[in-house]
Write a structure and sequence with these properties.
By secondary structure, this protein is α/β, with parallel strands linked by helices. 23% of the residues lie in helices and 26% in strands. The relative contact order is 0.18. Bound molecules: NADP nicotinamide-adenine-dinucleotide phosphate. The site of NADP nicotinamide-adenine-dinucleotide phosphate has 19 residues, from helix 5.
């Protein structure tokens, strides 16, 4: 029998949607993929989620949301949706080992870190190349590392890494950071943080040795190359939405973000809603993801004929 509502994802968007759907008596089934809790589980302290006067660790915050969702009746199953058929109703989700049918669907699959795309970066992943300082920073105690990127993530990663590392070089392709003023000020006054401006990573060294020994940097203005000796490099250059399985079935923008109108979380297929980072290329905050998850559940409830 088809589920009344299925929610894909257990980040702030998916769990908030499941809390609202459960309280609306829709008996939601939540599919938790390979990254339970989403991107907040690989961040350090969260200082900007309302309701927490003191910083709360990302994984702890997600654990609290998960317990809340389960307490109000959400059923959470583990599995990866490998294919979806949204052309028929009920919608069909293929999890490899089982198929789930859904009368309504909330897609809250989030986004994932982007990579530079260098062969050496791929080869040295896990051997000095990382996209998660919270996960791997501890391994670089007393060492020198680099962070690539100029946004909030890069600055947060750099600041976090100063707890372990002797020196952190932030490599940015421009001479002006994108991150918020508060993080910029903190990073700039931290004596352990240095900046390599107008620079891009031309190669991660040394793929031949199988371990990171440094970076070859290119000055984008002069074209000059130089080497920076580091023991590790953290890539923090933004994210891309996890929407590949819905390509061709839902309207998306050129980067793959699912299109939703300003006034609802509806997608181009009636009965399918999208929430959180898979449809948001502008705000991308935990609180906005949670808010859109609430909106998606309210929309789904109305679709089922619920009164509000
Ligand atoms: P982002 O804001 O998109 O920044 C990505 C950075 O990487 C930019 O500085 C960009 O350079 C650079 N970049 C992109 N592609 C590159 C490439 N191929 N080579 C070299 N550099 C490249 O991404 P983010 O920092 O992950 O942040 C994503 C969102 O999450 C933002 O809305 C941010 O505010 C939010 N966030 C918030 C917090 C917080 O509130 N505490 C923490 C983390 C993230 P350009 O500047 O030249 O484009």
């Amino acid at each position: 029998m088809a589920e009344k509502i299925v929610i894909i994802g257990t980040g702030p968007a998916g769990l908030t949607a499941s809390i609202y759907a459960a309280r609306a008596d829709l008996n939601p089934l939540v599919i938790e993929g390979m990254e339970p809790g989403g991107q907040l589980t690989i961040t350090s302290d969260v200082e900007n989620f309302p309701g927490f006067a003191e910083p709360v660790a990302g994984p702890e915050l997600m654990g609290i949301m998960r317990r809340q969702a389960e307490r109000v009746g959400a059923r959470i199953v583990t599995g990866e949706v490998v294919a979806a058929d949204l052309k028929r109703s009920p919608f069909k989700l293929d999890l490899g080992t089982q198929t789930i049918e859904a009368e309504t669907l909330i897609i809250a699959t989030g986004a994932r870190a982007k990579w530079l795309g260098l062969a050496s970066e791929r080869k040295l992943y896990g051997k000095g190349v990382s996209a998660c300082a919270t996960c791997d920073g501890f391994f670089y105690k007393g060492k020198e590392v680099a962070v690539v990127g100029g946004g909030d993530t890069a600055l947060e990663e750099a600041l976090f890494l100063t707890h372990f590392c002797n020196k952190v070089t932030v490599i940015h392709r421009r001479d002006e950071l994108r991150g918020c003023q508060m993080l910029q000020a903190r990073a700039k006054k931290n004596p352990k943080i240095a900046f390599a401006w107008n620079s891009i990573v031309d190669d991660v060294l040394d793929a031949g040795k199988g371990v990171v020994t440094g970076l070859r940097l290119k000055d984008v203005k002069s074209g000059e190359m130089r080497e920076l000796t580091v023991d590790g490099v953290f890539i923090a250059i933004g994210h891309e939405p996890n929407t590949a399985i819905f390509k061709g079935q839902l309207d998306m923008d050129e980067l793959g973000y699912i299109k939703t109108p300003k006034t609802s979380m509806a997608t181009s297929v009636p009965g399918v809603y999208a929430a959180g980072d898979c449809q948001d290329r502008v705000y991308r905050q935990a609180i906005t993801a949670a808010g859109s998850g609430c909106m998606a559940a309210v929309d789904a409830e109305r679709y089922h004929g619920g009164e509000r």
